[in-house]
Amino acid sequence: MTEPHLWLRHESRTTERRTPVVPSDARRLVADGVTLTVEESPQRIHPTEEYAAAGCTIVPAGTWVSAPEDAVILGLKELPDGPVELTHQHIYFGHAYKKQPGAEELLRRFTAGGGTLLDLEYLVDDTGRRLAAFGYWAGYLGAALAVLQHRGRLTGPLEPTTQEELEARLRPAAGEPQPTALVVGALGRSGRGARVALMAAGIEPTCWDLAETRTLDRPALLAHDVMVNAVLATSPIPPFVREQDLDDPGRALRTLSDVTCDVGSPLNVLPVYDRVTDWAEPVRRLRAAPPLDLIAIDNLPSLLPKESSTDFSAALTPLLLDLTTGGPWGRCRDRFEQARRELGITDGEFRHV
Prior knowledge:
- By secondary structure, the protein is α/β, with parallel strands linked by helices.
- The protein has helices at 23-31, 48-53, 103-113, 135-150, 163-170, 189-200, 210-214, 218-222, 243-246, 305-320, 327-342; strands spanning 5-8, 35-39, 57-59, 71-74, 89-92, 116-119, 181-184, 206-208, 226-229, 255-258, 284-288, 291-295.
- Strands 3-2-1-4-5-6 form a 6-stranded parallel beta sheet, sandwiched between helices. It has a 6-stranded mixed beta sheet with strand order 8-7-9-10-12-11.
- Strand 1 (5-8), helix 1 and strand 2 (35-39) form a beta-alpha-beta unit.
- Helix 4 (135-150) runs parallel beside helix 6.
């Protein structure tokens, strides 16, 4: 098999500091015969010089659009609006298979250019378990920010930090009252991260998972001060919080942190907001009386870019060494083709790994 040519692109989102491949793993890829081209990126947590030292070829930001035809473009978050025709294979989180805003347009861009989306969310084993994910750090940060907001310590704009610095901020002051906290989806990656952050803040959370949400005790949910949602639904289920719940005068819930940020999807389990929050304005007040604050940031792990990138890269790198037509990458490609069929998109060519 011909060794692949991977092209690590610059992230167009200014708050995206993470990288799917850290320099130490880039060195491993190069040593195993992979051609690795890395775009310059001033915001990436690891400086470009470290990739050059690992044997990568360095090119200007944004030049992936003219990369060789066989290059596989590697990133994390959304592509810029151009070009209209996407001709390469792209590996990143596309968020395009659950009727999210802009999903159809993105899939048509791939069809127009004959490219392929290998969505990292669907890089799974044969049991459906995700093989590379940022979920732990998303849950950790979603819970950490919720605690800081509830204690009146969260201010914007947010800045990247380290786990050590964040946990120092999470420690409760002497005599400070502790909120009650609920983690929904507590047994998954994100839920585990949320529980660790809450424990670091001195809070023993209530933990719900499938058994507790199958028949939802909504009054019990609304009786908590803080809720962290770590459930990303893949089939329709009743929402956890509804519009009428926000106006319940007995609602104790004051801080709602949505780790999954599935806004716009018909599968959203928190259909009480219509847009995410961001680093500049991390909190939005949904109700004034009784108050309810929302945190819904869709790139939470980038607030801990070094820790989250290191973990993700360690999981992804072995898979990048085996970009075959079957296995996990084949499942990614099959899911892309399924999404096209569901939209009735049949024109265009495919390039397969």
